[in-house]
Write a structure and sequence with these properties.
Strand content: 15-25%
CATH class of the largest domain: Alpha Beta
Number of helices: 16
Distance between the termini: 65 Å
Helix content: 40-55%
Radius of gyration: 23 Å
Largest sheet: 6 strands, mixed
């Protein structure tokens, strides 16, 4: 049981405090409810860009990282489709230093042309390294655009195209900051040995004076019920061919979320999983197979990823997969298999709440979903899933609502950048 206090300041900042006397360290987690889904289709990649800009210094602290390191701590951040999360761990005695830094960059972030130009180059290089110059780097661009037609999940966190970051104007970036980085769009969670009343007093002294902002969030449209299959065939010099099958599924709070999550484990978690055994070990048509979910706050994806064995065609592997899936949908799942996976998932949830840093992060994340107490009840939700639930959601994976991406390669490793260079030479 993770005990915590929840408070809401007058400016809208949500505060979660957990006292953990087993550590001399304090973790400060600041979650902003802004991700790539909040971007304009013409200006994508801004949430990820801001993950970098937020470390560029503020009015009273020219360098965030230098101050944290001098205080004996370390910090980092991440961005996804739904949130941008910043976290810092340092000796509890220096908690006020971290709160000062967070408050200062919330209100007085340095957003000037020099800072913007520097971080633009960093993000552009990251885009090239992870997307353009990787053989499979554009997979999520293709798959997301195929699966989502109206929802902003149709582009990845790093951005739709590199030009959206390269051409970003200072006024656009400043507008994005003012639209989303206010206290009423943030969740501050703290875990450490400090007395909660003292922590709340420190938070109020630093954040009370920061005014709330008008959050400029666009309305997100839901995807229509998919009633026909969609297919993309991409032939390129991939090192090996890969098949992706993706279906739209429940959002993170949806009634079928945990059933889909456990279904992916039934299929592919470990060498004893059902589809791994059949496709890789028995039929030997796969060199690799995996099933997983995206777990997004809005409608997510259930994905199967397979690579054919040597001398096995994509068509042959795909035919076997559909045969196995149809047979699986008609049979009853052994309760002992589900019980084993539920125990494994429940233990993962419990172990994820051992350290103070993880508890601070999890409290903020669950609060962003609408209820911080999910940190204490998620294991119960997993335990409630039945074999009938697994079979029911498995039968939602059909040919008439699937999104198929086939990457067909010839084994020659050539990056997209090298291909472009060859075209220019011609």
């Amino acid at each position: 049981m993770v005990n915590f206090e929840k408070h809401t300041l007058e400016n809208g900042l949500t505060v979660l405090i957990h006292q953990d006397t087993n550590t001399p360290l304090a973790t400060i987690n600041m979650l902003y409810k802004v991700g790539s889904r909040d971007e304009s289709p013409e200006r994508t990649g801004f949430a990820h860009l801001f993950e970098h800009l937020m470390f560029g210094g503020s009015k009273h602290a020219t360098s965030y990282d230098d101050v944290v390191q001098l205080a004996g701590g370390d910090s980092n951040a991440y961005t996804n489709s739904d949130i941008t999360n910043f976290y810092c761990t340092l000796p509890a005695i220096n908690l006020e230093t971290a709160l000062w830094l967070e408050a200062d960059r919330m209100q007085y972030l340095n957003i000037n042309q020099k800072s913007l130009s520097t971080q633009q180059q960093v993000v552009i290089e990251e885009f090239k390294e992870t997307c353009i110059n990787q053989p499979y780097g554009m997979v999520w661009h293709m798959l997301a655009e195929e699966c989502y037609k109206v929802h902003p999940y149709q582009w990845p966190t790093i951005g739709k195209v590199i030009e959206h970051i390269a051409d970003a104007k200072l006024e656009d970036v400043q507008k994005f900051y003012k639209s989303f980085y206010g206290p009423n769009n943030a969740i501050l969670s703290i875990a450490g040995p400090m007395d909660p009343a003292s922590v709340l007093a420190l938070i109020k002294s630093r954040f009370d004076a920061i005014p709330s902002r008008a959050i400029n969030r666009s309305i997100r449209l839901e995807e229509a019920l998919q009633t026909e299959a969609r297919t993309i065939n991409s032939e390129a010099p991939y090192p090996s061919s890969v098949l992706y099958l993706a279906w739209l599924m429940d959002n993170r709070n949806g009634p079928n979320y945990y059933a889909f999550d456990l279904l992916s484990d039934v299929m592919s978690l470990g060498r004893s999983s059902l589809f791994y055994q059949r496709m890789v070990k028995v039929l030997k048509v796969c060199a690799h197979m995996d099933a997983y979910i995206t777990g997004t706050e809005d409608q997510g994806l259930f994905i199967m990823e397979l690579r054919p064995s040597k001398d096995v065609s994509m068509e042959e592997m795909e035919e076997h997969l559909w045969n196995e899936l149809e047979a699986f949908q008609k049979t009853e799942i052994n309760p002992s298999i589900l019980a084993k996976l539920k125990n494994k998932n429940e233990s993962t949830v419990c172990f994820s709440n051992v350290s103070a840093s993880h508890k601070a992060a999890n409290l903020a994340y669950y609060e962003s979903l609408g209820d911080a107490n999910l940190i204490n009840t998620e294991a119960d939700r997993i335990s409630e899933v039945t074999t009938a639930d697994i079979k029911r959601v498995a039968n939602l994976l059909r040919k008439d609502n699937v999104n198929t991406l086939r990457l067909i390669g010839n084994g020659e490793v050539v990056t997209i950048a090298e291909m472009e260079d060859e075209e220019e030479d011609e």
